[in-house]
């Protein structure tokens, strides 16, 4: 009996030891798992914190870049809004005088069905021009006017109707046509503060049936901070209905000779398709003569 009890106790002790050992192993495994989990959570938390920090830095950099882009766009916008200064007025008075050779390509009466062709050539040749637009045509083709503006060309004012008896009814009628055209341009380009401050009288300022009205209108325009410019060279596209490239080049050569600063009159109208076709050769000729191309952004300051 006694022997049997001892054997039982030994068995129980042995069993208990095995259970305790197993429990210890399980406990150790559990602790290791918990530690591993804690390490994982800690690492994951550190990663989240680090990523959040990086993301915050990225957001800050993105905000800075976005602000810089807004400022750049605003600067570009302001640079394309003419500001007529006293220096600009003086520049206009001396537009036909320069120590260096410069050429201003100007196009009247647009936009029209040939404007995009003209713009394509100017873009290919990397030349900026000045467009004296008609308000009535601006309202008909606002998308083309927007392209003129977006591509860095100067949008100047040629009145609204180009109907002489309307525009030259009185000096005030000239100013009214200027303002009406200017409103059309502002709407087309989406820039409410735009004002070209630059007008070209249909038919030119000097002479003609309405010479007195023009003279009085010019004084009224000046009182409203608007200057005018005519031309001292031309391609002859208003002189005949039988235009050819050779004719335009010849007229240009005749009217350009011996002049350093030239403001060239051309037309942007369906009947002047030859002008668009001749434009690459016109630009090539002027370059060969040593002219540098300018537009009135460099004059109206």
Write the layout of secondary structure elements.
Blueprint: H1 2-79, H2 86-93, E1 102-108, H3 115-125, E2 130-133, H4 135-140, H5 142-150, E3 154-157, H6 164-167, H7 171-189, E4 198-199, H8 211-223, E5 227-228, E6 233-234, H9 245-256, E7 261-267, H10 273-288, E8 292-294
Parallel strand pairs: 1-2, 1-7, 1-8, 2-3, 4-5, 6-7
Helix pairs in contact: 3-10, 5-7, 7-8, 9-10
Explain the overall architecture.
Strands 1, 2, 3, 6, 7 and 8 form a 6-stranded parallel β-sheet that branches. A two-stranded parallel sheet has the order 4-5. Helices cover 58% and strands 10% of the residues. The chain has helices spanning 2-79, 86-93, 115-125, 135-140, 142-150, 164-167, 171-189, 211-223, 245-256, 273-288, and strands at residues 102-108, 130-133, 154-157, 198-199, 227-228, 233-234, 261-267, 292-294. It has 2 domains: 1-79; 86-298, Glycoside hydrolase/deacetylase (TIM Barrel), CATH 3.20.20.370. The protein is α/β, with parallel strands linked by helices and 301 residues long. The relative contact order is 0.14.
Instruction: Calculate the mean pLDDT score and round it.
Output: 92
- The helix content, as a percent range, equals 55-70%
Counting DSSP H or I runs of 4 or more residues, the number of helices is 10
Class of secondary structure makeup: alpha/beta
Question: Mind telling me the CATH superfamily name of the largest domain?
Answer: Glycoside hydrolase/deacetylase
Give the radius of gyration: 39 Å
| N- to C-terminal distance | 123 Å
- Classified by CATH, the class of the largest domain is Alpha Beta
As residue ranges, the low-confidence spans are: none
């Amino acid at each position: 009996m006694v022997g049997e009890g001892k054997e039982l106790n030994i068995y129980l002790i042995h069993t208990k030891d095995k259970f305790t050992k197993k429990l210890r192993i399980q406990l150790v495994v559990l602790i290791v798992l918990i530690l591993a989990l804690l390490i994982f959570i800690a690492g994951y938390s550190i990663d989240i914190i680090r990523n959040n920090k990086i993301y915050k830095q990225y957001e800050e950099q993105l905000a800075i870049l976005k602000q810089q882009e807004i400022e750049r766009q605003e600067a570009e916008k302001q640079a394309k809004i003419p500001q007529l200064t006293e220096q600009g007025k003086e520049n206009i008075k001396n537009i036909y005088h320069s120590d260096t050779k410069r050429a201003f390509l100007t196009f009247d009466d647009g936009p029209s069905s040939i404007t995009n062709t003209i713009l394509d050539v100017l873009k290919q040749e990397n030349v900026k021009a000045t467009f004296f637009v008609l308000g009535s045509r601006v309202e008909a083709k606002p998308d083309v006017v927007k392209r003129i503006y977006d591509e860095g060309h100067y949008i100047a004012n040629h009145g609204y109707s180009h109907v002489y008896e309307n525009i030259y009814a009185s000096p005030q009628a000239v100013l009214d046509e200027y303002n009406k055209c200017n409103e059309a341009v502002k709407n087309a380009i989406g820039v409410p503060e735009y004002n070209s401050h630059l007008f070209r009288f249909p038919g030119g300022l000097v002479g003609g049936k309405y010479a007195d009205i023009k003279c009085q209108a010019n004084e009224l325009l000046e009182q409203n901070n608007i200057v005018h410019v005519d031309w001292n060279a031309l391609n002859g596209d208003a002189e005949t209905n039988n235009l050819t490239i050779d004719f335009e080049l010849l007229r240009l050569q005749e009217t350009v000779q011996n002049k350093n600063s030239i403001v060239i009159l051309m037309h942007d109208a369906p009947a002047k398709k030859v002008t668009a076709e001749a434009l690459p050769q016109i630009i090539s000729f002027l370059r060969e003569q040593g002219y540098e191309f300018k537009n009135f952004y460099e004059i109206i300051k």
